[in-house]
Structures are given as structure tokens and as C-alpha cells.
Amino acid sequence: MRMKFQASLYLKDPKSLPVYVERKVHRIEDLPPVHEHAFYELVYIVHGHASHYFENKYYPLHGGDVLLVRPGQFHTYVLEQGESFELVNCLFMPELFEREWLKAVDPKGQIESFLMHPFLKREDEFHPRISLELRDARRVERLLEEMLDEQKEAREGHATIQRLKLFELLHLLLRCQNEAMGRAKQTSSTKRSDSRDLIVRRIHQFLIENPEQKQGMELLAGQFGVSVRHLNRLFKQDTGKTMLEMLHYVRIERAKELLMHTSDRVVDIAARIGYEDASFFTRLFMRKVRCSPAKYREEMQHRSEHR
């Protein structure tokens, strides 16, 4: 079953101290269980390697990688016996991004967009990770160390300095992401429109991260500046599914995670992913997964116990 790490474990006063930094070495015996947070977790891998279990899939991590886990996303790490890796965690609350601050340090609204869709790319499309070049990796590590020093020394103004350094860090990562996308664009042989591809990926990512959303298709399409008809055509071409089919698919995948990692009732899971009618959800689940939600939970728990 999953755990939920609350901000109060690290941020004694999230309003006045909305950032917490820690450096640690993980070994197999002290890895956290599958969990979610009530805060953002930005992770820099200092050295070593591991597998990152994220939203029901596994992805490799190496030194120089940065990933950003949003509130409510399930994850943990996996190691082989005898292995270890070192990381720096930077935890911060959504409250950090007050409008007054954003106007001053992010006038173009890039950080807000980045936090919704971190490290978008084609490979490992839904794993929010970027592999940094050595120069950028050293700068990221230096910024995190400076934030950690401010936290330890707790001198006058340290909370404000930490917050400013976090904004600097996020802008640096935005630059790295944009440069990586530019390089990929130059070497890519695909003939599909970049803007079309980006629209599909961003809406797909939005649905994955917000499966409970009840926005009409017209409103969602309008937010991305396209018509519903055009959007459905793009989705069909790119994914083989219409928008509505993709929404159902994303919700069922999320339900499978919740059934695996929580003890929530089926009716509560249905409501959490956007289905007010639990009977409709159960019928849809049986049609897509070929078993009931309760049976799926039972089978997944049985597999977990016999690994």
C-alpha cells in the first residue's frame, strides 16, 4: 500500500519556510516504499544509478539526472543488492509560487508551465527527467549545495535566499530543457509538425496528471487554441485514440495504480479519477481490463506477496 509524505515532516512552517533541501545516500535497506507527496520533489542524482518506479513503470537513473515529481504522483527507487546512489532532494510547496513572486522572477510564466509539464520529450515521454551535460550538472549541484548551506546556517534572510536560488535553479533547468529540445529538433528526421506534436503531448500529459478533470472538450481544446474536431483528428493520428477514448484510458490506468497502492474503496477511487457513477466505472473497467476492480486488486496483491 502507498504512503503519503506530508509537508509537515520536513517543512515545519510551510508558509515561512517553503523549501527544504537534503543530501543523502540510498541503499537497498533504506529505500522508501511506494509513496506520494503533498509537495513537489526535485531530485538531482549526484552519482550512482538506480531504477525509478514512477506511475507504474520503471526508468533508469544515472549521475547527472534531474527529475521533478509533482504532488500526488506515486514513485520510489529500486536498487540491486549491494548498490547505492547519492542524491540531493529539494522539496517545496505550491504556496512558494505566490503571484507577487512570479511576477517579479517569472514574468513570462515559464516556471508555472514547466511545473505542469516538466522535461517534455519524446523518449520516456511521461517520465519527468532530464540528463544534464557536465557543465550544467555541476551548476545545479552547486546551487543545491548553496541552498543547503543557507538552510543549515539559518542566518537572517535565509528563507528568501533559498527561494531565490530555487527560482534560479528552475530557470536553469528550463534553459537545459529548451536547449535539449532544440538539439533534438535539429537531428530529428520526423516530418510531423512540432507544434502539433507538442499540443498532443501536452494535452496527453494534462490528462495523465489530472484524470479527474471535468472540463468539456471544447474548453480544453480552447485552452490550447484548437477546435475539438481538429484536436480529435490529431489525437487519432498520433495515438490511435480520440480524446474521449484517451481520457478513459488514462483514468483506468490511474485506477489500476490506486487499486494496487491504496486500500480506498472502489466508489472512492471512481470519484477520485472523475467518475461520479461507480457502476459505470466498474463496467468500463471490466470492459477494458477484463476483470472487476476488486478482482484486479486481489490479483495484484497476490503477485506482490509472491515476488
Automatic annotation (TrEMBL):
Protein name: Helix-turn-helix domain-containing protein
GO molecular function: DNA-binding transcription factor activity; sequence-specific DNA binding
Top-rank lineage group of the source organism: Bacteria
Keywords: DNA-binding, Transcription, Transcription regulation
Keyword DNA-binding belongs to the record: yes
Any Pfam family hit: HTH_18
Organism this protein belongs to: Paenibacillus sacheonensis
Signal sequence interval, chain numbering: none
Residue ranges of domain HTH araC/xylS-type in the record: 201-299
Keyword Zinc appears in the UniProt entry: no
